[in-house]
Prior knowledge:
about 450 residues, mainly beta, Jelly Rolls, Tachylectin-2, Chain A, 2 domains, 7-stranded mixed sheet, 6-stranded antiparallel sheet
Amino acid sequence: MLPSFEIAARHRPITLVAAEGLPLRAPFGAVEAAVTGDRAAELALEGPDGTRLAVRLEDGRASLRVRIGGAEHALRSRRHGRVAAPPTRLGLTLTGSHLAVLTFEDDTWLARGRVDLREVGGPDTRDPAWLAGLTHDAVGVRDVRAGSFGQLGLRDIRLVSHADGSPYRVGSEVLFTATSAGPGFFDTAHTSVWSLSVGGDIAWRSDLFFERPDRPGVYGDHATHLLRDGDAWLVATSTWSDFPARRADRVPGALGVTLAESTDDLTRGQHVLPTRRLALPADGPSVGMWDPHLVRTGGQDGGWLVGYVSARRFFDFHPLLAAGPSLDHLALRGAATDRRATEGTTLLRVGEDWRVLASDGRDNRRAVRGRYPVFDTSMAEVGTLSAPYPTNIPWPTVVPPDPDVPGDEWRLVTFDGRRSGGRLAGYGTHGDVVVMSERRDGPRNEDRP
């Protein structure tokens, strides 16, 4: 049985520069600096090919200045480029192929302009050689910081685990992966690793980036599960990093799941991981799969269970479960085909049984909307999780207590859909991290017979 939960804390760790220092290992970088008075200010990243990616603040206007092959493009948003209040800091972000200018006004970062560098003939920002030659420049500013990009929000919270599904702990802390949101759609985000203390505080620890098996370059793929299997790490992730915002550009089958293996300490620093495709069975026509969660079970049912999501079309999606003796030999166990907006598939051992948790988004039919369903391993619903349901489609990441840690208790860590960065940054910037604790006077969650 699982307890009921109530919200205990919320966090929104907005950071442009997560770790100082260039060059970059992936196309996720930032430069920020303090500005004073009416003096013109400019920040730039400069590539080894003569490319200069700059942002400028002058006369109350923020703009982008992109120099490619000797020609300079001056780009300014008519709707968002004028600052509303005198900013105290100026920021440049490179997230995937997107360059953005941000200003820090009234205690918040606001996106004032953004361009996809591919649309102006820009460099291949995913090329490791180009990234290795990056330097930064600053004019008319002080207190300059440059390094890897952090996040405007966190979503897709997933507990870091051992292969048997138990939480991976560092002392009294548990770790989780998250999608670090950039100033735009899904292709501006990447995977990060965080710690959660017994008291509910969170702290950044590392960033994970990926190489694809079918194309060159470094990608910020996300919606990731990191698990410890013996002396190595397995990393299952969803290939969201080049998923296009425009519906017309979406290619069926391009969105899938990859698997990486490493013996490095992925919980600290920054890492670029080679991957291979993880073949997952579908229950019918599928245009894409995402949200992997893996456990090694052993026994007569096979060595592994894998939960994930499949979409009949974008966006009509539901959770599935596969099983097999290895990750290379998986067969479908079940699918919740009556859902059309359910994701965050999460495996949890409850007593002697495995349960599959998920999140029923509000685009489902009324009877299965805005709730956390609990399925058995045939994907038949056997109950629901009693917990507040924030906006968007929050994942049900349940953390069992450690009996050896004083004061530890059942927790649920999830996220909401609250955006940041202003109207230009838009949907992809969600959300807050929502930490829930066990509700002492609440009912227990029980499976239905």
